[in-house]
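Structure in, sequence out. Go:
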């Protein structure tokens, strides 16, 4: 979705843009829906698929493409091959979406990265990961955040939003927004709810399991709610198309993930003035400024999460609505697009 959004914004700014994707893939369907030119390509192997690389190079060349932007690690090999085949005429830019699980200093990776014109990270901590865990030329490594069209995020009256989502009007509501997945920590938040000294607040979990994967974790969540008789305090809702309504219905957003590279949920919540209680890991640790736009708790620690819930519920934490909104203005898509343009033109 970040790739799609950026392509759409760059088109609006007058650039010639095409998206290359496999036929009938989710990104291909979304590209057509958003009226962005789509070029269908065949699936390629993660490594050394020189035939597909040659075919892709020919397509890019015939379309006079100068810059190839990728976001997935499994596209790195074919993109590097395209840069090689074009003798550097097609510039490859990697926009990092996931953090490193281990160092990437093997010779074949170092050679591959040498063909990249730039390696772009959404946050400073990821740039440091690249510098420490690869042999990539430091001069190629930049920080360019993922962007949001902040004009599309408009605060809705809380009572109206809660009525639309069928949530109780008078309760203090924490919300978890995003994919239903063990790494997203929904059950950790349920455990913290049980350990809190307050017993009158509610938790709303909004999202769906990953497409084409089983729903065993969702079943586990439902069993936890049933066993602990939390049906009246925990609300399970499917993914909602209007995030403005979702966040406007909440008092705080909880981000209990094991680690988020760059939590778009965090930015969306703050853009609407809703503070975030986030896990002290990954990008959340950089995005959430303690007592300015939210609060941090120790990762995977339900006791500390419960303690932070109590601090919020007791009224001990007081945040300024406008300061929360201002903290994410740097992620406005116009600013991000200007950074991308400066990169490409250089």
């Amino acid at each position: 979705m970040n790739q799609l959004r950026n392509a759409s914004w760059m088109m609006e700014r007058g650039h010639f843009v095409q998206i290359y994707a496999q036929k009938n893939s989710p990104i291909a369907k979304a590209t057509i829906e958003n009226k962005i030119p789509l070029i269908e390509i065949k699936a390629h192997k993660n490594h050394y698929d020189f035939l597909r690389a040659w075919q892709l190079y020919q397509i890019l060349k015939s379309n006079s493409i100068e810059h190839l932007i990728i976001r997935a690690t499994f596209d790195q090999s074919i993109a590097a091959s395209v840069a090689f085949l074009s003798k550097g005429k097609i510039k490859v830019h990697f926009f990092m979406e996931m953090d490193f699980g281990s160092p990437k200093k093997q010779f074949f990776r170092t050679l591959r990265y040498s063909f990249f014109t730039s390696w772009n990270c959404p946050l400073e901590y990821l740039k440091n990961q690249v510098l420490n865990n690869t042999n990539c030329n430091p001069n190629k490594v930049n920080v360019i955040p993922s962007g949001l069209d902040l004009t599309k995020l408009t605060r809705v009256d809380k009572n109206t939003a809660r009525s639309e989502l069928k949530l109780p009007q008078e309760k203090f509501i924490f919300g978890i927004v995003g994919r239903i997945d063990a790494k997203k920590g929904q059950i950790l938040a349920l455990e913290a709810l049980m350990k809190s000294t307050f017993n009158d607040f509610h938790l709303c979990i909004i999202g769906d399991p990953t497409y084409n994967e089983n729903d065993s974790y969702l079943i586990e969540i439902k069993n936890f709610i049933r066993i602990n008789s939390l049906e009246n305090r925990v609300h399970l809702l499917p993914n909602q198309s209007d995030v403005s309504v979702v966040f406007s219905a909440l008092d705080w957003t909880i981000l209990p993930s094991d680690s988020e590279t760059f939590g778009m949920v965090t930015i969306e919540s703050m853009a609407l003035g809703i503070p975030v209680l986030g896990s002290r890991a990954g990008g959340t640790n950089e995005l959430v400024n303690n007592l300015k736009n939210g609060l941090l708790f120790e990762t995977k620690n339900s006791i500390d999460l419960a303690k932070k819930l109590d601090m919020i519920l007791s009224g001990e934490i007081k945040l300024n609505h406008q300061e929360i909104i201002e903290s994410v203005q740097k992620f406005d898509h116009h600013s991000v697009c200007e950074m991308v343009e400066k990169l490409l033109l250089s």
